[in-house]
Please model this.
Amino acid sequence: MTISKKTAMPIAILLLAVLAAGGYWFWRQRQPGTGQATKAAQGKVIYTCPMHPFIEKEQPGACPICGMNLVKKVASTPASGQEMKTLEQVSLSPTQMVLANVATDKVDRAALAKEVTAVGIVQYDQARQAKVTAWVSGRLDRLFVDKVGDYVSTRRPVAEIYSPDLVATEQEYLLALKSRDQLKSSPISSIAAGGEGLVAAARQRLKLWGVKDQQIAALEKSGQPNIRIPIYTPLSGIVIDKLVLAGQYVKEGDPLFNIADLSTVWTEVEIYENEFPFVKVGQRVAITSQSYPERTFSGRVSYIYPFLDPKTRTVKVRVELANPGLRLKPDMFVNATIKVPLAPTLVVPVTAVMDTGQRQVVWIEARPGVFEPRDVKVGARVDDRVQILSGLMRGDTIAVSGGYLIDSEAQLKGGGGSMPGMKMGGEKEKGQGGTPPAPGKPAPKDDMDMSNMKM
Model:
């Protein structure tokens, strides 16, 4: 098939144009720097404020905060993990380290002894308290204890009581003894056994009214009832309450005295809820008092109360200790110290850890003169040292002083340092907000349109 001249001419011109365009494109690609320019052109051009880099606009103008002219900023690709790590590192020369007082040391394991300190109040030993009561009704004819603070013993009576009922029971007992003597010679065994039963019943009644065996023996020897029966205390100690007077009539069961043995006392110590897990029953406790600053009393934890005070957020711990010389008085304030040995773990100086409130950071020396931050988890603090539960390894070299200056250098460099809410390059994390306008300098009203602004 033949092509006419009218058709061939346009086709030839079109082919020549296509070849020329292709040759021009190939020539442009061969020119140096063309590829880099093309890649740069692909980035989106935005405008930002040199003083407030979080202000971003798609068009030129003025910063709505400080009024400075916005400058071009080409959106770059995100940095790789290695580049981010490099940005976090801070390099210091030997002179800078000396001026910044930066000292380093190696991380090592150690066994610490945590000291739990608390305040407490001296209390009576509840197992060493007793109450003297009237076992029978009657009249207190005589008191051998006339004031609070007197010492009483189980071997000496504290009072004498006249009780008609008790005198009648004593007479019944004496009659039972005579009857037993008369009936024991009877040939009828049941009659002889009945005499023994009467004596046993009368004797048991006397003992239930508090008459001791030696008093009953004295009654049998004298053959006469005792008009006044002595009253004894069940516990030797100090009289802390005197509730009766001489000549007073009392009923059966009325309290006469309260007795406490102060040779051993309790101290109820209040431990804060973050420290009471370290306290165990049987641990030794050192007790000191302002009354005796030169003396340290030693006791042991005898009980940990199973409830917490919601007002003070403390748990009470009972400490039992000896009280030689009765120096510790009930209701006295004391200080308690409990030393708790901790298991060996990684330990660093407290000055090496920077606590921002949200994270704990230690500056580790990656290589001589180059430091990078490392997030750690801390444990118990003892004096000037703190446990490291995770984040470091034994043998790591860390900055034990000058960490805040290293962190400041990292922020000036743009690495963000350890400050919360900062990203690489000093940009704020999402939701952190921007810098407020300078006091006394309102932002220009004409440039406050933020419809096309990226915060």
Observations:
- DSSP finds eight helices and 27 strands in the chain.
